[in-house]
Amino acid sequence: MQYITERSHNMRKFTRNVLALIVAAAMLLTAAGCSRGEDKQLRPLTVWVFSEQYRDQLLSCFGDDFPAIDWEPRIEIVAPEDMDSKLEEAVIKGSGLPDVFMLAPDDLYRYTNSELTAELGSLERSFTSSGYFSYAIDAGRDKDGTLKAVCWQPDPGLFFYRRSIAKAYLGTDDPEEIQRQISDWDGFRKTALAIREGSRGKTSMVVGIEDMMRTYMAADSEGWIFDNRLTVPPTAASFLEYATQLADDELIYEAEQWSAAWVGGISDPQSVFGYFSSGMGMHSVLEKACGGTSEGSGSFGDWAAVKGPQSSNWGGCWLAVYSGTQLPEEAETFLRYFTAEEEAMVKNCLINGTFSASRTVVDEIKYDAQFYENFLGGQNLCTVLSDAAGSAEMHIHSEYESVINAAFAECVRSCAFGHKTRDAALDDFVRTVEAAFPELL
Length: 441
Fold this sequence. Notes:
The structure is a single chain. By secondary structure, the chain is α+β, with helices and mostly antiparallel strands. The protein has 2 domains: 2-155 and 314-378, D-Maltodextrin-Binding Protein, domain 2; 162-313 and 396-440, Periplasmic binding protein-like II (D-Maltodextrin-Binding Protein, domain 2). 44% of the residues lie in helices and 15% in strands. The protein contains 18 helices and 13 strands. The strands form 3 sheets. Strands 1, 2, 3, 4, 5, 6, 9, 10 and 11 form a 9-stranded mixed beta sheet that branches. The chain has a two-stranded antiparallel ribbon with strand order 7-8. Helix 1 (2-24) runs parallel beside helix 3, helix 6 crosses helix 8 and helix 17 packs antiparallel against helix 18. The chain is globular. 42% of the residues are buried. Residues 1-38 have low confidence and may be disordered.
């Protein structure tokens, strides 16, 4: 919690000061000529992204489609944990701010409600409810409904389960049948009890608290803050009771997220039935930790994916424009190309194997051969993601949520596994949040 608390102070400090600082900041970015040829000097559009992978994905789809422009993207890598400090440093310095920058879900509320990001009203008409997954677009709006960030890659949440365990204790590994059994949280618990009984207590339904809570809390429409005070919304109170019930019935493996035990459950043949994650999480975590690279090695090929008991969004990225950019039209063109131009979006998805915020694009690409995943025993991942995204919810109520959610997960863990009484765990939760955010006292 120390790291999270310290980062939260920096986040709040930045949010409070950015308006005053931006007035004093120089509005011109340092210009450096970039050439695509010997005779043509192109103005750089500076774009900050989280990783080499995102940079390569953007560059792989940019070039020939823009033969007449007099600018080109200069893409720089800024890790997610460094984005706040890099932006703050540039604001204070008065130079070096990007024209476009990437935002993670936990940062959307803070930045869309900041003067640092430009309004994107001219792009509004591009995003119709019928053509896009609405939650991905709405997440980029400020509290007044103004579009301030656009979704490049959403990351719907899924439930990944072991086929061999499903066959042994549920009689089938068919994703449609498994989804029917765990389509709500009551069914999820009944299925967990059946697996526990069939395995004689050797197999837990889920690995731990944190990833299950992320999915469960996606239904929360109220948030943690009411009248500028910390409150426990009904969804959070319900999850505390639900997780405690599952723990009492020995249905949770009790591994802390990212611990050796948590990772080890991915390759273990029997300990854990399933993990809440996402398409990105499957590739970056589950597949890498499964202990093999082909069917029959480790748990590779022994997995399947379903929407699960609650639709959610796990990760992904949004793009915002710096309000003081000297290239506003160019920045808008860049965003429009990657998030609203259907041909370019299809190209990006097919080249890079990524998911899209556009229903139309997903419908066009989802049966491409690359989306039939060997890791999932040949199951089509894109169709499952599309199903999940169609009903996903993504409520972002305040800038405090990521810190409060982490503190509450620890509260639930302490209570569910009997390390603390319910009252003691809740008291410690309140103290942790109030220490991080004294203004909520």
